[in-house]
Each structure stands twice: as structure tokens, then as C-alpha cells.
Amino acid sequence: MENTKENDGLLDFSASDYTVIISDLHLTQEHITDPNNPLWKKYLTREFFFDNTFRDFLEHIETKISAKHPGKKPVVELILNGDIFDFDSVTAAPEEPPYKISWLESRRGLYPEEMKSVFKLDIILRDHKEWFDALRRFILKGHRAIFITGNHDLEILFPLVQERLRESLALPPEFSSNLRFCDWFYISNKDTLIEHGNQYDPFCVCQNPIHPMIRKYNRIEMRIPFGNLATRYMINGMGFFNPYVDTGFIMTIKDYLTLFFKYMARKQPFLVVSWFWGASAVLFQSLSDRLYPAVKDPLLVEDRIERIAKKSNAQSRMVREMRELAVAPATSNPLMIAQELWLDRAFLFLVSLLIIFQIFSAVKLVYDISFFWMFIPILLFSPFFIFYSKSIYSYVAQFKEPRERILNQSSQITKVKRVVYGHTHVLRHEIIGIVEHLNSGTWSSAFLDIECTKSYSQKTCVWIEPGEEGGPREASLMEFINGELKKSNV
């Protein structure tokens, strides 16, 4: 398919023969290893970067399609389906900042304000030059690159961030329109709906994808979901935990204690302090951010919706209806997020200690008893505390499974029979109801162990190509292994 220009300057992307979808690359700041603490954020070291693999992947796509169509140059639609960048894990700050940096920002990363997000993108550009060079060469061959926003790269919705990314790619004017940024979904060739999938996860949902920014007193910020605030304020300060796989940070008390005494007791003995103040910051900010009004101009609301629709190959009605499919954010249930952060157990433990101490102090005024008698009620309280802790389970895994109702409704809204997600990092290809559903998995440095020896990540993609004898396009899961794309066993 050729690229043709529409009246508003956007290229007509409504038709495509080949579509390649990848997601969850999580490109972020390189961590420089401390010889005295080599396991701290080991998963973010250059050892596990895949920029050159991405280059080989794009070159192989070009070779594969050229071999199928000798003498022709079919246009490939590369969909970068969310969480391509991980702004949450960038903790660097400028040496001479032109803006105020708070104590919290200096330790956990800059707030999601436009100029600060531009700086974070500059860090990613610096540390992943090979990746961006490969993308530039791919676009210069006439192919398309469409960025869809995920929960870890919401800051790419800032206009200046998009402008900086375009500047870094340095595309000639005739190729600049081959790069597009979509707000949260995209319809490919009128047969496939592609979205990151975080809109159906209450812990990572963008509360208002049409108007994602909020006004805080004298500044404008991107409203960051609860799950991503947890990465910023907790995981960034607890570098032994890997945020790219759930088992890297969601565990039982026994598992936490085992890891602590094996890896952290000497390197981060006050881990519980880092966790407590980080979790408290997450709870406070997530609840307060929910209350801030979205930044929007009433006179331009319809223009905004029409623009989102145009970039997504959709209609304005589809944008409104897709917006209504999103789940309510987890912050609508403060108790639930306190439980996810373990703050409910911390509160129960501290209050119990306070009550026991008060009772003991009152008794000691009358009777001269040893301080160690206070441990008796603490021991009596322990079974209740353990029982309560075991009765609480994380809801995070519950939203890893695609739901038939949402798949069917999104299919009906966008008039497609195929839906592709990312977000969960779980490879899938199945028929659910009347919808063909695929998940492209992850390229990120997700490991099942702190020492980064058990990789969870696979270099996978969703490959959509013309059907045989002019039939409907066909989709399959592919894995890039040893320089070649091979069908996944999923």
C-alpha cells in the first residue's frame, strides 16, 4: 500500500498489507553497576539492552517482505503498542536544572511535567542511540511507525516530548508524516484493533485518556496511574525487585523474608523504611491526583476527539464509546490500594503495638513489672495478625486475563474481528467469543530472579499479513530467534 496524504496533513494509514506489532520494550535509563552492590537494578544494566537485536529485527522484516515481493516495496506498518519507553524508571536529574526539583524528585525521579519529561526522554535517547537509529532507518525506507501510549510512557502525550522525539529522528519532511503518535488505540486496515490494554486494568488505567493532564496549583502534570506511582516511589528505591514481572515484587511474607536475608540484609538493611515511606507517598499522591480536574478547553473538546479519531483511523463516536469501556481506577477504593501496598498490615501492626504499650505503661504505674512482659500480648496477637495477612490476596493478577465482554464490545464499537493487546507481558493467541485475541508479550528485561539468570522475556511480535488468494489478513505470534522470525509455540 502507498502512503497518500489527507486534507489535514496526516497520511492516510487506513489500509495496510503488513502490520507488525511489538509492545512493552521498557526502554529506560541505563543503570551503572556499583561493584559493591552488583545486583542492585542489575536488570537495567547495558548487559541486557537489546537495541542491536531490534535493529536486526527491523532489517529481517525488510528482507523477509522483499523476498516475498521481488521488484516491489510493500509498506510495513510497525505498531509500537505502548510501554515502549519507561519514564517511571528514569531517576536522573539535570545538574543545573532550570526548574525546581523537590527532595522526593531527587531520590525517585522527576515529576511528570512537560519540560521534565523532555529531560527524561533525552536520557532514554542518550542511552539507546542504536535503537533510535534503527527506527530512523526503517522509516526512511518508506515504512510507517505508530506509537500507541501505554501506562509507563504516558508522558509521550506531552507535545514537546513528541517534538523532541521527532527532532532526534531527524526525518526529512517527506518522511516525517510516516511517524504517528496515537493516544490509546489504533485501527489497522479496518480489521484489527490495537491498544496497550491498560485501560482495563484498574491499577494502571489512564483515568481520562482524552484529557490525561491535570492542573496542580501553578503547574500542569500528567496524571500517573497508581501502579506506575508504585514503580516510581517504591521500586525505584528497592532496586532488588524487578517491576517487569509480577513475581518480582508480589510475594508472600515468607518469600519476602527469604529474599531479604539472602540478598538485602547487608546491602539494604533498612529496606522496610524505604518501603514504608515510598508506599505512603504512593498512597497519598494516587488519592490526591484522582481529585484534580483534567486540563481541557471546553471550546476544543470536540476538536480533540476528532483529532484522536483521525490519528487512530476511527470515528469520533468510537473514541467516546471506547472511553466508556475503561474500568474505574483502583484509587476509587482506598482500602484496596492500601492492601496492595501492605500499608493496612503496617497500620494494624503499629496500632496494636501502641495499644499494647499504652496498656503496659498503665499497668506499670501500679505494678513493678519487667518490660519483657509486654512481649506476651504481642505473641498472643501474632496468630491474629498472621491469619489476617494470609486472608489478603493481591488483585493485580486478576486483570491479566482478557474479558470476553470487553473484547466483544470493543470489537463491535470499532467494527473489527481481531483485537491485539500488550501490557500483561503474557503471550496469547486465542478465540474468545467471536473475537480473535492476541497479546504480543514483552521485550523488556524481565527476570524471575534477582541475579537475572532466568529470563521471562521473549523477543516476540504479532505478525499480520495478506491471506492466501486475496482472502482476509491472517495474524500469528512470531518470535525473533537467532536473527529469524519463527512462529511462537503459544
| Beta-strand proportion | 5-15%
The average pLDDT value, as a whole number, equals 92
Structural class: alpha/beta
Poorly predicted tracts of residues:
none
Please give the radius of gyration in angstroms.
25 Å
Arrangement of strands in the largest sheet = 6-5-4-3-14-15-16
Termini separation (Å)?
Answer: 30 Å
How would you portray this structure in words?
It is elongated and about 95 Å long. With 490 residues, it is an alpha/beta fold. The longest helix has 24 residues, at 343-366. The protein has helices spanning 51-68, 103-108, 114-127, 129-140, 159-169, 173-176, 226-233, 253-264, 271-291, 301-311, 316-325, 334-340, 343-366, 375-391, 404-414; strands at 4-5, 11-12, 18-22, 76-81, 144-148, 179-182, 185-188, 192-195, 213-216, 219-222, 418-421, 428-432, 435-439, 460-465, 474-481, 484-487. Helix 3 (114-127) runs parallel beside helix 5 (159-169), helix 7 packs antiparallel against helix 9 (271-291) and helix 10 crosses helix 11 (316-325). It folds into two domains: 16-239 and 251-335 and 399-487; 343-391, no CATH class. A seven-stranded mixed β-sheet has the order 6-5-4-3-14-15-16. Strands 7-8-11-13-12 form a five-stranded mixed β-sheet.
Structural topology:
Blueprint: E1 4-5, E2 11-12, E3 18-22, H1 51-68, E4 76-81, H2 103-108, H3 114-127, H4 129-140, E5 144-148, H5 159-169, H6 173-176, E6 179-182, E7 185-188, E8 192-195, E9 213-216, E10 219-222, H7 226-233, H8 253-264, H9 271-291, H10 301-311, H11 316-325, H12 334-340, H13 343-366, H14 375-391, H15 404-414, E11 418-421, E12 428-432, E13 435-439, E14 460-465, E15 474-481, E16 484-487
Parallel strand pairs: 3-4, 4-5, 5-6, 8-11, 11-13
Antiparallel strand pairs: 1-2, 3-14, 7-8, 9-10, 12-13, 14-15, 15-16
Helix pairs in contact: 1-4, 3-5, 7-9, 10-11, 11-15, 13-14
